[in-house]
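Running low. Invent one:
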Amino acid sequence: MSEGPSQPGADGGTEGPDVSCLPGGARAALEAVLMVIDQPATATELATGLNLTVDVVEELLAELQREYNGYTGNAPDVDEASTTGFSAAPRGFELRNIAGGWRIYSRTEFADIVGGFVLEGQSARLTQAALETLAVIAYRQPVSRARVSAIRGVNVDSVVRTLTQRGLIEVSGNDPESGATLYRTTSYFLERMGIGSVAELPQLSPHLPGLEGIEEFYDAERM
C-alpha cells in the first residue's frame, strides 16, 4: 500500500520526522510505537505522533491487524490476508481496538503463561472485597462510596482507595443533591476487561432473578 504523505503542520510545512525514510517506512514506525505504548492510542494520536494522516494510519492498522491474525482463521478479511503473503507462523500477540484506542496485546490463549510469568512473586490480584466493590461501581456508576457501602453492607473507603490507586476507578464529579463524590470505572478498566464500553458488560439480571425492586430496596434517602 502507499504510505501516504506526511501530515501538514499549522504553518503549511511538515512537523516531526519523515518516517518514510526509516527502515520499513511508516508501517514499521507505527509498529514500533504500538510495541511500547502502555495504554491504547487512537488513530488520531498515532497519526499526530508519526506525522501521518489519519487515513494512512487507519489503513496501516488494518494491515497489521490482518497480518497478526492471518494464521488464526478468524482475522478480518482472512481471504485477502491468505493471498498477500502473510506469514503462517503463529504469533503470541495481536492488535486490538479496545477502549477507544489501539494497542498490541498477548493473545488470550497464552493468558495463563503470561500471567504466571508477570505475576510470579507478586501479590497483584485484587481481593474478593475489591472485586465486589469494583463490580458494584461498574454496574451502578456513577456512584458514591456511601451507596456502594449500603449495597455491600460494609465500609468500602479503603477498598475504593485501592481501586483508585490501581487506576481502575476515578472520580466523576459530585452528586448534585448530596454533594457526595461519585466514582466511575476508567478506560484502563475497559482495557483490562477487554471491552470497548461499559455497555458491553454482561447483563446480571438473567443470573440474579428477583431484582425487580432493587431501586425501592436501596431507597435514595438511605444512601
Notes: The chain is about 40% helix and 10% strand. Residues 5-14, 71-86, 207-223 have pLDDT under 50 and may be disordered.
